[in-house]
Structure prediction request, 423 residues.
Amino acid sequence: MKSYRKVSLILILSLAAGSVSGCGAGEEAESVKNPYAAAVSMEGTPVVDYVVPQLLPNVLVDTRGYAVGDNKAAAVKGRNLPEEFRVVDAANGETVYTGFIEDVTWHAESEQFSGVADFTDFDKEGTYYLECDIVGQSRRFAIQEQLYERLFLENYERLMESCQKRSLSLSEATALLEAYEWYTAVFPDEDRDQVPDVLKELRGWVAYTEENGVDSGEEALYAALLAKFSYLYQKYDLEYATDCLKRASTVYGQVQNSISKDADSFFALTELYRATGLYTYRKQIEDYKSFFENNSSYLEEKSYLYAAMTYMATRQKVDVVLCTAFMENLMERAEEISKRYMDMIDPVTAKNNGSEDLLKCAVELSCANYIMNNYQYTRITEEFLHYLMGQNLESVSFYESDESRVGYMFLLAQLTANHEEKE
Prediction:
């Protein structure tokens, strides 16, 4: 009997200790089966389970870090918030910066506050974490020179590896070429032969695709890619570029009678028209005008978005009304995103349809920013990146997913280009 009471007492004390030592201030928790329950339970008694907390920080940071010279802010959430925050050097535990939590907001639905810890003024390279009384610490993050450049190259190299393995999809190859056109200066030329590496790799990808073909239904998009590649490659190898343009015209011609008016077909028409200036392509482009009237939702489809950018950039004769409509619709979309982006990435009550939705908005902002350089659009793009890399409710980095690498490429290329311009 004494032995039984002793075991029971040990069990009770162990459970009490576990519940105290496992819970950090302001941390979230998930249920995990008690691994010791079977060992201490008497035969015929119920298995005891208890909650072991999964530590989720209430100080939310971009886990990949912040760029020297750029804005740096974290989100803080909790039932109660302190007035101050501290930036702590992860190497030695010393506080290197102190600031006040600002823009404190009460969220009735989740019954907690959120605020902003802005440490833009602190600009020393290193690895740090943020610390607040009551709510605890953030995950570690870096402050680095050329952070966006490094992230862009990291993402770019993953795409180049897929290109070399011939596993790059047609949509990825098209987006890669599109990003190169908009942000040429950030794409490397490692062997310094004056031909950007991305064009050389895509030339090999095109040759492989010519041998193996494209999936049914992708012919129009492939024609658009060939025409765009021809246009961008002509100053490096005019003969090969001309062959690509002829091939693009042939591919589009072969499917022209069987395809309807859709985004990929319109994209192909704009690229073929820019490269050739032929009236037949211009006339087919103008046949789409009624579709674009009183309609800006078409910009949500990547091929229409790319096509609009090509049409606005061409030096060929254009329909001024159509060109103006493209520009106005794109700017309206950008302003709409600007008005609601804070709700989309609020660290406590974010309202978005996932990372793909945010990346799509970032690409639209990149287009608008390409046409009219706007500091606000760049800042919003930067905020999207911080949210996607950990400054969200679950402190999750969505960046590691290969499924979204094209979206990150546009986002990072824009931030890299703007950062280089500032320097």
About this structure: Confidence is low (pLDDT under 50) at residues 1-48. The chain has 15 helices and eleven strands. The first helix runs from residue 2 to 21. The CA atoms of residues 378 and 418 lie 8 Å apart.
